[in-house]
Amino acid sequence: MKLTVTKNSLEKKHKDLEKLKTRRKDLVIDKEEARSQGDLKENFGYQEAVKQIGIVDRQIAEATEFLNKNSFDTVDPLGWSKERKEKGALLGSEVSFLRGDPNLADTEMYIIGGALDDHEDVVPYTAPLGELLLGKKEGDKFKGEIAGRTVQIQVTKVTNPSVKKLKDIYATEKVIEIEPERGL
Predict the structure, then answer these.
(1) Global pTM?
(2) If we measure between CA atoms, which residue out of 103, 2, 113, 20 comes closest to residue 61?
(3) What are the chain's domains?
(4) Confidence class of residue 172 from pLDDT cuts 50, 70 and 90?
(5) How far does the chain reach from its first CA to its final CA, in angstroms?
(6) Exposed/middle/buried for 166, CB within 10 Å: 0-12, 13-18, 19+?
(7) Could you tell me how many helices (H) and strands (E) the chain has, helices first?
(8) Tens of pLDDT along 120-157?
(9) Residue 96 region by backbone torsions, left for phi larger than 0, else alpha for psi between -120 and 50, else beta
(10) Do 33 and 62 contact (CB within 8 A), yes or no?
(11) Do the beta carbons of residue 88 and residue 135 sit within 8 Å?
(12) DSSP string covering 75-129, please?
């Protein structure tokens, strides 16, 4: 599948995979240290390390498969601030809308972003909401399905985001620490 992504989000995906590989190496060391402590049946450190290695192995396999099975077009999100001839919500459009009863709903606003974008003000174009908003124009009212539920949406505004807003969202790289899952 061909996905449109920002360069930063694709780089982050690769960095996260490298962090997982490093985490796995650390877990193998932990496992070997715990193994040297004796009886493996009652050795919680050993059992926990084996469990965590399995979890990290699955995450590595999923990330590797995702990167290998897809191809990527990278885009510069700062270009989204420029005026465009096309009307309607496109990749990079800032869309304001009401979800549910227009008389009761608060206005929501998202930028339609790349497939891997992860920010509270961005909805990836591949997400159900992103797919519903693409191509919509100011004043459009429609129903769509999100998380198995039918929702009513009314688009109130479609604009290009400001350069400042795009820089706030895309110019800073967010570092996400990969935490081990804890047993009960």
Answers:
(1) 0.73
(2) 20
(3) 2-74 (1.10.287.180), 77-170 (3.10.50.30)
(4) low
(5) 38
(6) buried
(7) 4, 7
(8) 999 999 999 999 999 999 999 999 999 999 999 999 99
(9) beta
(10) no
(11) yes
(12) E-GGGGGS--S--S--TT-EEEEEES-TTTPPEEEEEEE-TT---TTEEETTSHH
Q: Is 56 helix (H, G, I), strand (E, B) or coil?
A: helix
What the block records as the tokens of 164 is 């400042």
Give me 8's structure tokens: 């930063």
Question: Are 81 and 94 a contacting pair, CB within 8 Å?
Answer: no
Which residue, 80, 69, 67, is CA-closest to 125?
80
Tokens read off for 151: 């929702």
Contact 9, 116 (CB under 8 A): yes
